[in-house]
Fold:
Amino acid sequence: MKLAYELEWRISDKWLHAGQLGIEHAVCMSWPGEDYPFWDFMEFAKLKQRYADYGLNLAVIEAMLPLDEIREGGPSRDREIDKTCRIIGNMGALGIPVFCYNWMTRIGWLRTSFRIPARGGSEACGFDESLIRNSPDAGDSLVSRDTLWETLEYFLKKVVPVAEKAGVRLAMHPDDPPLPSVAGVGRIMGSVSAFERLLSLSDSEANGITFCQGNFALMEGDLYENIHRLVKTGRVYFAHFRNLRGDARKFEETFHDNGQIDMHRAMKAYLDAGFDGYMRCDHVPAMAGDDQGAYPGYAALGKLFAIGYMKGLIDGLPQAERGVR
Structure:
């Protein structure tokens, strides 16, 4: 397992924190509307060097790229696919091994509150499906689940050979929250069986999974067994480690030591199953002194606690089981 820190491409104190925490691997994040030119090789090369200047190996691209034409089978989907393939080719040329993407169209990562009172006056993110249940579009099928499966298969047929040639691993992120539809827009990556179906669409090692623990904890079955089940496929290349409280229709995110997931048991499950990919801490409450302009769930101080907590969990395991670098 390789611990990583997600860092927006703009330099901030978090870049210094990563090195101070002993983290060697970076995940490049970009948010909707921040269209960093990953398809431009020279710009991408300079970005990789920027991370290296801070002692960080850029290992994962987790960018909110414009893929809705692909997901919905629109007239410009092949143009978007060509652009995605260019990005993957650049990643291969620069030695960046993991591309994290998702199959949520129109409505992506969704929370209905960003200031839920949490421990000690901190503020957490949460979701309550009842607040959007009466959306005027809720009864319509704006994008069907069948369409999303068809377009995903089309995407993989086009992109997997490019990823294979580049030596890049595609890592599908689950729907967040993992519901069958949101306001009339279908979703397909919200169950363990859906991820097994994803792997069956292409048996290439380039076709893989991001195990976002918060979302998988809200799916069917036992989380710890599902960690084993999917990691044992050998195609989980990236993991998000977080905690929460609730279910898929109503939940709130928590500090890593304060939710319903047994985090020690989860960490042990990854290592027992032989997980050798990249893992980063995921959403945390905002603490006193955090930048209130930071993207919700990604403020710096809560991350410091999370990474220290993760390192403590790992150090608490027998040395032979750790396998962390």
Notes: The chain has a mean pLDDT of 93. The CA atoms of residues 127 and 251 lie 5 Å apart. The first helix runs from residue 13 to 20. The two ends are 6 Å apart (CA to CA).
